[in-house]
Specification:
By secondary structure, this protein is an alpha+beta fold. Helices cover 17% and strands 28% of the residues. This is Hydro-lyase.
């Protein structure tokens, strides 16, 4: 179940919990790659409650989780408690679902929400800047936007850099190494309307692509599009 369109006005977050001896590498990775990995909160090792949602447990609050071992996906539980380790450091990373209410308010349609689907996400050929043992490609989310509204979408989202900010591209998907816009790597294929063009934003699923490439021994993430919904209002991440 995607959380797209499910919590209008509330900030949503990507989640990754990684062993403490890898946490500095990941923190450095987010610092070097703030576009796909804008950090909203970092918990102490073993901590399970974030200041962004004080009545929720990070092990149970997302609709679905992913369990990773040596870069391989081994389980997708709805509850990650049985997989939890006391050495895990949890990072909450900005999510583009947070700026969707602002897009709708500006008159920009959300095709994936209208079609009751998850947003399309693609692994690009853009390599993130490595950090320690971590390396891998940037993932982007894609929304079909009427061509006449692309500039508005750019302006609205540029004001929210903590949740990925302005698009990283629009138009020809091949500029990002995407061969088939109708076959996403994560999420659902979305049907465009006449006059729509694909617009791409850096995506917080990037850490999952990095896990696949870097192969740390263990990690827990949310399932793509099934986010950790916070109590923070989306406008808290608007600048200007």
């Amino acid at each position: 179940m995607t959380t797209a369109g499910k919590a209008p006005g509330q900030a949503q977050a990507n989640l990754i919990a990684i062993p403490k001896d890898w946490a500095y590498d990941f923190l450095l990775f987010t610092h070097r790659n703030p576009k796909p990995c804008p950090v909203l909160d970092v918990l102490d090792a073993g901590e399970t409650v974030s200041a962004l949602k004080q009545d929720a447990d990070v092990r149970t609050h997302a609709p679905r989780y992913r369990i990773w071992e040596n870069g391989e996906l081994v389980a997708e539980p709805e509850n990650a408690t049985e997989y939890w380790r006391d050495d895990l450091v949890t990072f909450l990373i900005g999510c583009s679902f947070t700026f969707e209410t602002a897009l709708e308010s500006a008159g920009v349609p959300l095709r994936h929400v209208d079609q009751k689907k998850n947003v399309s996400m693609f692994v690009t050929d853009i390599q993130c800047r490595p950090a320690g043992r971590l390396h891998g490609p940037m993932v982007v989310s894609m929304r079909w936007i009427p061509e006449s509204l692309v500039d508005i979408a750019h302006k609205v989202t540029a004001l929210m850099p903590s949740v990925h900010g302005a698009p990283v591209g629009a138009g020809d998907p091949r500029m990002l190494g995407i061969e088939n816009i109708h076959e996403p790597d994560f999420g659902d294929a979305i049907t465009p309307e006449p006059g729509d063009v694909p617009v791409f934003w850096a995506c917080g699923v990037t850490p999952q692509a990095v896990l696949m490439k870097s192969k740390p021994p263990f990690a827990i993430t949310h399932a793509p599009g099934q986010m950790f919904v916070t109590d923070m209002p989306d406008f808290a991440y608007r600048v200007g």
